[in-house]
Amino acid sequence: MKYIIVLGDGMADEPIEKLSGKTPLEAADKPTMDRLAKKGEVGLAYMVPEGMSPGSDTANLSVLGYDPKIYYTGRSPLEALSIGVDMKKTDVSFRCNLVTLSEEESCYEEKRMVDHSSSEISTEDAAVLMEALKEGLKREGYEFYVGTSYRHLLVWKEGKVIELTPPHDILTKKIGEHLPENEVFCDMMKKSYEILSAHPLNQKRKEQGLNPANSAWFWGAGTRPNLMSFEEKTGKKGVMISAVDLLKGLAVGSEMDKILVEGANGGLHTNYEGKANAAADALLNHGYDFAYVHVEAPDEMGHQGLLNEKIESIEYLDKRVTRLIVEALEKAGEDYRILVLPDHPTPIRVRTHTKDPVPYLLYDSRKELGSQEEYSEKTAKESGIVWKEGYRLIDCLLEI
After folding, report:
1. What pTM value is reported for the model?
2. Which structural domain range is residue 185 located in?
3. Model confidence over 356-377: pLDDT tens digits?
4. Angle at 241 between CA 239 and CA 246, to 5 degrees
């Protein structure tokens, strides 16, 4: 028996007038998911515990079966694990986004958050800009590390956790009231704008029609996590396939293996087939019992408010990931159970995460679990099945 999770980050949404009251998931052409739904179980699961922020960190912990109320210590420490930072117990890490702020205002506080991802900046461009920040913001006790795309890291030695605002929560808004109260952090962010806005690479990006990565933005503070081994917890040998440092960090923290797929970049035009083929190969040829395939694109399209692209990302998830995995396992004659779901909604309307329950689809190749016409938020609600403690859903997948 093989077990698979296909995670469409931020895939869930709300009914949209332009879609005649349908959600992007309902509007998408997704024949594989809908075929599985006809013999599978469709329901709702709360992946974000009451009182916690609806981040991909808390939600993906839940999806993997770790109660965030017990195991969550912050987002960026998980990314630090992925990057290979050896955090001490007294260290505090922060996400360092390379963001785009509006340029017309002379006062930093009056600027608006234009783009939390700087046109999904490439890791190659980001590395050049991060080197400039490392040099220009050099301070004793503060260290910068290069991550992936716009997602990077700052570690504060002997630091303390500071509550800071995620940049994707304030898109189009003035940043002044969301700046850190900590003078050092606020000063570094202001100085980062001076360094980056004048950088030749950003001038080139603007000429190319791309958003300049003209400021650092700190958030997601936390301390070193301490997760139980996934294999010890579940009895299953697992592998993580994702382009995102957060998910790769979850793999490191839970002692799962991870596969790095060439061309996987966390954007709309990622290497979908590469992820699917890597999962199938790991399960069929390398002794893995469980594969977690994470696709970031629906979340990014939700943050950017791009409706057609969000629908397209869901269709890619169906045709270029889910279908290929299912076909490979069926061709090999392998019994399998597959769970398809988002970690949280990222509605086009609000362009950020919400803590509403997510629709899930559970399919078992050996037997019928239920029957729904399609996989969507609507059919999930109509099923009447609700997991209040979403972190327990994986036990149902794994038949624990």
Report:
1. 0.86
2. 83-223
3. 999 999 999 999 999 999 999 9
4. 100
